[in-house]
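Batch job 17 of 40 flagged for manual review because the log was empty.
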Amino acid sequence: MGKPPRRRLSPEARRLEIVEAAERLLQAHGADVRVEDVVRAAGIAKGTFFLYFPTWDDLLETVRGRLVSEFDVTHPLPTEVESPVDWPGLVDAQAIAFIDFTLSRRGFGEAIFHSDFAERRPLADNGIARIAAIIRAGQEAKSFGPVDPDATARLLFAATHETADTIAAGAGREAAIAALLNLLRRTLAP
């Protein structure tokens, strides 16, 4: 009994099939995933993989872009035009959303954000830039004190990321988040 005939898919559908196979594997196995694993999971030839993704980094960049877009769509930043913004509340909500997002996608972290790939292809528009933009907008609205937005964003991102790592390592979620929110509020207080 031979293999079933290969389904004919549009190039976009085939590319998505490869990306989704990689996402499932990265979520389950993290940085241990290789091209051969994705090829097997997607049921394609290795040549087909390289037709769509000339390098492994090209695939990882696509996966990372999808993750960042998913967060941005799920947790959009409001504007004052829509209605007045509770900037301290927004910082809290964004921090908790980042923690939950990170914890629900732990397998991606090492492969996508903390690997040689991340050094070769740094993420240009990342969480630090997002926090800095919130700080600037909050300062304009007189909700935050006179801190350096870029330096402060870097430190607050590190604290938020560490909170996610602490929870993942078994620390109590409520206590870890309460400590982080206290730090955020004190740092940005007017």
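Reviewer: the log was empty due to a logging misconfiguration, but the result itself is present. The chain has a mean pLDDT of 91. Unflagging and moving on to job 18.
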